[in-house]
Amino acid sequence: MKTFRLCMLIVIFTTLSACRTEDGHRAMGNIERDRISLSASASEQITLIHVTEGQMVYQGEPLLQLDLRSANALVAQRNAELKQAQAALKALISGTRPEQLSAALAALKASQAANQEAELKYQRASKLFKSKVVGKADFDTAKANRDSAKAKAQQAHDQWLELKNGAREEDIAQASAKVQAAQAALVWQEKARQDLTIKAPTDGIIDTLPWHQGDRVVAGTQLISLLSAHQPYARVYLPASALTHLNIGDTVAVFVDGFDSSLQGRVRNIRSQPAYTPFYALNERDRARLMYLTDIDLLNAEALPTGLAVEVHLP
């Protein structure tokens, strides 16, 4: 009887040891896909929704439309500012028209004639004042008129010379810089308007869409969650005891629920920190139970749905 009990204990112990060893060579997890969050670039109202949850979409396809009226007005304003800056630059480069130069020359001659007349009147008034024929007031008036006519003649000469010589290089450079700034502002505003049309950045499936047409959202609000349709991967919990046997780039066998044959997977990433309690807070026995999140790319598995349970056989 004792011999029978001893044999049974040996069998049970051997079975448990085998199970423990087998569990140590497996990693459990789920099939995942890259999740892309699409957010609102401005505080606007949703005017149109093109898709529904669960719908397959393709790169560049419009998904949701925010109100464009404010953006259109700003684009028109930036376009007008650009045209204004371009016109100012063109005027400086083209120089003075002949009619403007002729008018400035005529104004210069008229001011010079008025200056000569005022000078003669001043000289006569000066002689009469010295002879005590006119008073101090008449002399001061003639002098003031002479100085005013001289200043106006100088001003007309400077204006004529400026038109004749054309714009300075510094003025042209400044006007050119204003044109470039206006162009950059227009490009930025057009990009901001384009961002109000939410488009699919890649092929994928609409996972969540909690908004409705007419809702008003603020900038930065998540509008749509998109699951990428490209290569899926298995996210599994790797036992700490397997860290020394598995490296990035290794190939492993992945078993999926509902499929008889295994899939080929390639280790993409192994987290450097455990998913649960920090290792320094555990003793040696407990540290062996730590799990590390590991991503394994699944080859030729694009048709598999997200969320399926998987089992990875470790080397």
Automatic annotation (TrEMBL):
Any one Pfam family here would be HH_YBHG
Q: Does the keyword Coiled coil apply?
A: yes
- Locate the coiled-coil region(s) and give their ranges: 68-159
UniProt keywords (A-Z) are: Coiled coil
Identify the domain of life: Bacteria
Every copy of the YbhG-like alpha-helical hairpin domain together lies at 74-191
One cellular component term from this protein's GO annotations in UniProt: cell envelope
| Location in the cell | Cell envelope
Q: What is this protein called?
A: Secretion protein HlyD family protein
Q: Which organism is it from?
A: Marinomonas posidonica (strain CECT 7376 / NCIMB 14433 / IVIA-Po-181)
